[in-house]
């Protein structure tokens, strides 16, 4: 799949990302899931690396979901993104998690991107943009704000 670039409001285009890797229909109406993201962020020499491990603590399966990664600095140019990811704006990347069973994991996401300039730090906001139609009463484990100074160290979330 080639790299996609969305124009306009990223929140309205999030459903389009969910369709990139969707293997089935949205979750049943009223279905309850508990999406979670864990990983790390690094910043070095004008590049930002983000590793996301999506999971679903259940109780319902999720056919697909979309994680939004919003950077405090604009991304520089159009870079090759992994399958299931696309640019939502100059500061935003949206990625499909793939199907997640209840108490299961989604597809790991690894990004290596160039940021504009050479910032001393970058803040990455990570959250669910689309939940595959399932409700999530515990958004605390799928909403993160990570500060990564330009040290090359991994900052876990």
Tell me, briefly, the overall form.
elongated
Helix and strand content put the structural class at mainly beta
- CATH architecture, please? Sandwich
> What low-confidence regions span 5 or more consecutive residues with pLDDT below 50?
1-23
Tally the structural domains.
1
User: Strand count, sense and closure of the main sheet?
Assistant: 6 strands, mixed
Strand ordering within the main sheet:
1-5-6-4-9-10
Rg from alpha-carbon coordinates: 15 Å
CATH class: Mainly Beta
User: Could you state the CATH homologous superfamily?
Assistant: Immunoglobulins
Distance between the termini: 29 Å
The sequence of SSEs as H and E is EHEEEEEEEEEE
* CATH T-level topology: Immunoglobulin-like
Q: Treating each run of at least 4 consecutive H or I residues as one helix, how many helices?
A: 1
Strand residues, percent: 35-45%
| Strands, total number | 11
Percent in helix: under 10%
Q: How confident overall, as mean pLDDT? A: 86
């Amino acid at each position: 799949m080639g790299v996609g670039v969305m124009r306009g409001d990223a929140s309205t285009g999030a459903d389009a990302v969910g369709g990139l890797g969707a293997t089935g229909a949205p979750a049943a109406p009223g279905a309850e899931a508990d999406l979670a993201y864990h990983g790390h962020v690094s910043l070095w020499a004008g590049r930002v690396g983000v590793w996301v491990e999506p999971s679903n603590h259940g109780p319902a399966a999720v056919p697909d979901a979309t994680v939004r990664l919003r950077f405090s600095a604009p991304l520089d140019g159009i870079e090759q993104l992994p399958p299931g990811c696309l640019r939502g704006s100059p500061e935003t990347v949206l990625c499909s998690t793939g199907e997640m069973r209840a108490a299961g994991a989604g597809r790991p996401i690894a990004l290596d991107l160039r940021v504009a300039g050479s910032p001393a730090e970058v803040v990455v906001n990570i959250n669910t943009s689309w939940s595959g139609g399932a409700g999530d009463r515990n958004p605390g484990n799928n909403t993160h704000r990570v500060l990564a100074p330009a040290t090359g160290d991994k900052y876990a979330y």
